[in-house]
Amino acid sequence: MNESNSVLTAPTAAVLIIGNEILSGRTQDINLNYIAKKLTTNGVRLAEARIVPDITNEIVSAVNALRQRYTYIFTTGGIGPTHDDITADSIGAAFGLPVIEHPAARALLEKYYTKENLTPARLRMTRVPETAALIDNPLSAAPGFQIENVYVMAGVPAIMQAMLDSVVAKLRHGPAIHSLSVSGYVAESVVAAELAEIAARYPQLDIGSYPWVKNARYGTALVTRGTDAAAIRAATAEIHALVIKHDPHPEMG
Amino acid sequence: MNESNSVLTAPTAAVLIIGNEILSGRTQDINLNYIAKKLTTNGVRLAEARIVPDITNEIVSAVNALRQRYTYIFTTGGIGPTHDDITADSIGAAFGLPVIEHPAARALLEKYYTKENLTPARLRMTRVPETAALIDNPLSAAPGFQIENVYVMAGVPAIMQAMLDSVVAKLRHGPAIHSLSVSGYVAESVVAAELAEIAARYPQLDIGSYPWVKNARYGTALVTRGTDAAAIRAATAEIHALVIKHDPHPEMG
Asked: Which positions in chain B touch A89 (Cβ < 8 Å)?
């Protein structure tokens, strides 16, 4: 991509995935991809992601590094009822704030659970750093929370998705980021030189080249991305003209 | 998890995923999970992962932050023939080394391509920082490379996997990391208090709690992980005794 990019004027975001299970390989993360798509659709540029273990200092360092740098930070994981759920305390530590039982969070859980089922473990899920606002959890009541530009969400994908959907509407949206792709049976090295020339003529766009293999034949997807829809169409027409020299029927997308 | 963990004595690693396509949501990364499993099996503790865009400064900063801190760094992506493949130059910049055409890499590509097909774009894939050693690519010839503790691999999963498999044998292996799980129809908040007591009695182990939903019923996988196999068996027996109070037939794994 081109380092001076019009997309840079959009609000930026980072994702912080918290969880040993991702780093041990037990769990394949699918939250990042969902968040990435959702932010892109809404004109927020996801600029970085980090994955850290369930260790307080690691979470604190990552949150503090990222929140200084990007418009929004989205965390996933570690807000459940068990001993390994240390995200609320870590975010509190990152902001230098005490962690308190949030009265509205308690009210939500009191509505969701019967009185005898509102155990101390479940009440752990009402704890947020002082001054945090709650993020709605329509699936299982226990809320996420927001403090300044940091949005703290569950790790369970269905719950994370519901939380993010409710949060996205409130974000500052940049110009929508569009993309068009041309994908055909041609090795990327065959089109690389001409592609570089096209990319140089459209410095306001990202033009990415992604090789693939299908039926033992090499192909490449050439993806043009940015906020300038007319330029994207023009660059894509040039890329199409380049690819059809090698594959008369490329896929457009 | 417990912050003072015997697993900490193992060699450590970080993964750096380089690619706009992951951050835009176009591509679901599957490389991290493969690397995580492979390292865990070989007693290398994956301690952090970062995902950065195709921007030189971002790659340089991340490489330099991570390589100081962990035993090994594995990067994926950005070593192909196109204009957006800037990993070799970025790693060179991170180490303050010029990027040169590696004679052995050229010889590999000369063997793989006919002379007229060895285009300038393909020759880009022979460029590595001075003093780097090559990493074999049995699938499509263009090699990865290693410099000090940084291993630079392709982003295409099949190629990355082949490269990693050849590299892993040469790493310093820590004690093997084992894990056992008990998974049953019980909400994690129901077992949280007793689970915390078990976790406190086994400070040398990580005990993780991962909720799931199946057929509209809540369940939890309780995973015990560490290098002390006898302690893992003992803790898992306690966890099993806890879970069968709620689900007589938990799955063991």
From this structure: none
